[in-house]
Amino acid sequence: MLIAACGAALIAIFGEPNAFSLSTVVFAVLGIAPWVFESRGRQLGQTLFVAMTMIPAAVIVIINGNPGGLFPVMIAVVWITRRSTRLVVAVALGIAFAMTIGCALFRPREFEGAIYFLGGIGVAWLAGVLLRRQAVLVDEIRDAADRERQHAAVEERTRIAREVHDVIAHSLTVTILNVTGARRVLASDPQRAAAALERAEVVGRESLDSIRQVVGLLREPTTVSTLQDRNEEAPLPQFSDVASLVARYRDGGMKVDASIEVDEVMASPMTSLTAFRLLQEAMTNALQHAPGSQVALKVSFVRSETAIRIEVENPLNKAVSQRRPGLGLIGMTERVQAAGGSIKIGPTAGGTWLIVAELPLNRVKSSL
Q1: Among 262, 266, 288, which Cα is nearest to 353's?
Q2: 3 state SS of 353
């Protein structure tokens, strides 16, 4: 805007024949002063800015009789409209229109030119309004972007917490299950106890690898390329790993009646991981809240094989109803909803605890 103000000042000085005078030069230069302050980041008050731009222009137009002084006025109207209150804008427009009409009255031969200047002032006001709206839109876009980044950060933290919770809860539960079994048979069957301790050690090591992998996968995109090889070596668990998951709990002494009717399902990675984590958390909760009880697990197709239904049922421990909802149930619900499915969790009339979830299959096309 400083360049535009300097150009308008030059037009005021040299734009009209025989209009050049020392007074015009002095007041044209004075009219540039507020723009110099603005360009240096020293924002003037609204009233002061209007006075420092309009008074020198009024001297040029009214006293010197030079209509070229209206060009700096139009530049000032743009800036004042962009950043000032409605009252200040109205005052500035009133002064600009008064100067234009006064010039026409004092110099009748400039009457036709005054009409064009009035139109120019109107255009300058409209330009200021558009610039003001643009600034508002830019601020709104920035605020929206900040909110989106904050929302993404919250979702990322939730994902990390959910993944780490599932991995730690599962690994600790299975480890404790094997250690407990080893302790019970240590005196009578040392070999069986050693095998249980070995399984506990394997689960512990796998859990550490899983935690590193989960945190790595949820880091910034700049680290993705360095993690690809690691991901290929240790992929996230999928639905095809459910059989080994059930076997691991059985090896630890848990009674699991499993019925899996969807063998070789090629589900999307999100659906597959959600199904695995859901079963993992459900059996972990059953072991914690109903130890020694049999868990019934069933996975089947529904809705013409467009979705899978997961049911996990175990005897209800009366203490469960008195406990606050844990992160496990919240995490299961969030996972299923994020995958586009539905879930119901709660006690049944038959005195059991039932988890029923449906997940869209979203089959992955085979590359063969």
Answers
A1: 288
A2: strand
> Contacts from 49-52 at CB under 8 Å and sequence distance 24+?
49/76, 49/79, 49/80, 49/84, 50/76, 50/80, 50/84, 50/88, 50/91, 50/92, 50/95
Task: Report the CATH number of the 238-368 domain.
Answer: 3.30.565.10
Alpha-carbon span 58 to 46, nearest angstrom: 18
Confidence of residue 228 (pLDDT cuts 50, 70, 90): very low
User: 349: closest CA among 313, 323, 319, 310?
Assistant: 313
Q: Is the dihedral of CA 358, 364, 365, 368 positive or negative?
A: negative
Between 224 and 48, the higher pLDDT residue: 48
Domain residue extents for the chain: 2-143, 238-368
What mean pLDDT, rounded, does the chain reach? 77
Angle, in degrees to the nearest 10, between helices 22-39 and 70-83? 20
> Is a pLDDT exceeding 90 seen at residue 182?
no
What pairing do the DSSP bridges indicate for beta strands 295-302 and 352-360? unpaired
What is the maximum alpha-carbon separation in the chain?
A: 120
* 88-123 confidence digits (pLDDT tens): 888 888 888 888 887 777 766 665 667 788 888 888
pLDDT at 311: 93
CB 121 within 8 A of CB 77: yes
